[in-house]
Amino acid sequence: MYRYHALGGASLAVLGSALSLMPSTADAQTALPAVTVEAPRVTAARPLARKPAVRSSARTQARPSSANPAPAASLTAGITPSVARALLYQAPNGQIATTVDRSQFDNRPAFSVADVLRESPGISVKQGNGPRDIGISIRGSNARNGFGIRNLVIFDDGFPVTQPDGLSRSDLIDPKAYGAIDVIRGPSSALFGNYATGGALNFRTRSGRTIDGVEYGVEGGSFGYLNNYLAAGKKVGNFEYSLFTSDARGDGFIQNSWFNTQTVNFLGTLQATPDDRFTLKFINNNLDTRLPTRLSLNQYYQNPFQQGCDMAGVTGCGSVSLFNNGFNGLKSSVTAVQAGLGREDRRTIVGGRWEHDFDNTTTWRNQFVFDDRNISQPTGATSSIGDFPSYNYMSDVTKRGEIFGLESTTYFGAFYNTLTASSDNRNVMPGGNARLGLLASNAFNDTSNYGVRAREELKLTPDLTAVAGIGWEATHLKGISTSYFYNTVNVPIATPGVPILADRQFQNTAPEFALLYKPNSEWQFRGRVATGYGTPQIGNLFVLSDGTSGNNTQLQTQKNLGYDLGFDWTPNQALKFSATGFYEFFRNELVTQATQKSGVNYTFNAPRSEHRGVELAVDWKFYPGWRFTAAYTYLDQFYTEYTEDLRSPGVAGTVFSFNRAGNKIPGISPHELTARLGYDQMWGPLAGLGAFVEVQWKDSFYMDNANLLKAPGYELVNLNVHYKTDLQSDYFKSLNVYFEVRNVFDRTYVASANNIPNTVQATGVQDGAIALAGTPNSIYAGSPRAFIAGMKLAFK
């Protein structure tokens, strides 16, 4: 199920031992060398730093022929620099990382990343604003964000899909396209730069040689869900490609949540010469979806799926207040159905990479990515409309060799990325179909990052490896935001105190150091100290705590210093166990919470906070055909210095201050567990038939800074039956069918709860939990019981 990356050593000996923790899979060749659990240590066939450069066919074979490198041959021929550099995205030495490979989700429905990433410890997911818009959190890093993904960096085959402003969205991710997903946990800015305070993810598409033909699949089930998808891939001579396309649609289980989305993902690599490889990446996603409003806790208990919300006034229905004439004056309260709230977005990514080998020890890489996010989002009282094109360039050199007789890997790189965009917010009017009124505000913004990073991995002894890295980065945020009101129709007047100008520059440095000790084939111990940083998004600088436009340009960079200590135990081929404890200290943590204004979030700095926790994972094949896997995360996160100012009701209300030191940070569930027990028949006439039962547990968590209101926890049970068989045919290779019941006991649960603001009375007394339970714009319910069936047919 999991690959627990050993995370150490620049030599083949250490890598071989490290990979002994990872079971080989059908897609292992797309990532790391497939090594059996009891893999013996191996040594390089030649000392790389002392061997003069030799151009030979053997050397060419030792290189990766795809963007997901490290064929098994590299274990005997030596790790090439390009393989060592690629491992930085999959298993950075000294850092805890887990790979969820395709074998874990190939026999089950996998509509969004939420269906697959739960299998990794440290990961938490929540529903965002759209069918595949999943908030992904590593160690609680993104649990407080209102939409999308922040505080971690995402790659697709090593190409960045996090834009320069730090925003990632999972709309474009169809899990069926991928052979493996690498989860890298903990502060990682030394290697991945800005926004990597929580870690990083690398989604790796299936290699062409693994697909080796064409595959067609379809799955569908409850609530009108239907997904047709196609995968094609091949390796022909020096060229290898893989192509994935899908068309998914459904009615949704909440009223006004139907969707229609198409995804294309292409990867092609040409070995042009023995020393040069060219890789092309293309991703495109179109999304058309309706969007329900988020509910208060009271509304969630009354009507979690917003049934009967065609008209305002129905119990438990969320609503949004719209200007009747589209610019000012009287308002009407309408439901999401009446307003026609939704999203119509497009995301297009085109990337290219050139790798050149100077000799057997040194590889130079140049990579360029164009990433365009085009949005039309009437998600509340206003509709955001804009185009967000970005450009990302990086260049680095990786060298394998020796320093003072010790095996080493040296990495040095530089990068530059920029995003320039202009966007409008237009008032939404009553009348349905997201009818647009006049301009409410517009913004121009420019975000640029540039910097350098260096890393050294040194094998001190056969059992001990040291890693040191550092990154430096300069960030420039520049923008202007103007909000408008109207005394005369179609004559906009800038609101007093605007336009608001922002021109902020930040410089950040992130060092890290790690040690890996592997005394024998069973045990591995690791320790790490590392730092992360994340600058504000420029849009955060223009929103006040009440949801109105205003000057919030004082926001600072959030920084964290983290300590990791852990071990991996592999006593035999049947059992793998991993444990990690971490303690992180944050300064100026960027915390986001919902406001009273629908769809608008406010961001502030909490001066000091602490995050600590434990991550456990087990994979136990306790009897032939049987397998038990589990991923558990414990999080304890709290403010150590933060005073919150709340204004009492009224235009000139009194400001009261409340000390939040010692309070839990809202949005963080202290306990999360995913456990699975399965059986697969391995022989006889029923070979290929299998089933599993899965349990998901998420503990309750606070929704506000005062810790007065909690979102309820839940336990879900899923059941799956599947069958896979090879076909003896001139045209067909294999057939895979599956059927799954999700939420077997039909539990009603909270799939997403955005943080809510605390309020205060004129007397200075905070409103209690009863009042806060009526605060809107927070909760989406999760899916009730659902039945899903699927089939995949592979052609030769």
* Model regions low in confidence, pLDDT < 50 over at least 5 residues: 1-77
- Overall mean pLDDT: 88
* Total helical elements: 10
In CATH, the architecture of the largest domain is Beta Barrel
Largest sheet properties: 22 strands, antiparallel, barrel
At the first level of CATH, what is the class of the largest domain? Answer: Mainly Beta
Relative strand content: over 45%
Total tally of structural domains: 2
Q: Whole-number radius of gyration? A: 26 Å
CATH homologous superfamily of the largest domain - what is it? TonB-dependent receptor, beta-barrel domain
Provide key terms for this protein.
single chain; 796 residues; mainly beta; Ferric Hydroxamate Uptake Protein, Chain A, domain 1; Maltoporin, Chain A; 2 domains; 22-stranded antiparallel β-barrel; 6-stranded mixed sheet; 39 strands; globular; disordered N terminus
Account of the protein in words:
The structure is a single chain. With 796 residues, the protein is mainly beta. The chain folds into two domains: 2-205, Ferric Hydroxamate Uptake Protein, Chain A, domain 1, CATH 2.170.130; 208-402 and 410-795, Maltoporin, Chain A (Beta Barrel), CATH 2.40.170. It has a 22-stranded antiparallel β-barrel. It has a six-stranded mixed sheet with strand order 1-2-7-8-5-6, with no helix packed on it. A hairpin with an 8-residue loop joins strand 31 (671-680) and strand 32 (689-698). The radius of gyration is 26 Å and the shape is globular. The two termini are 27 Å apart.
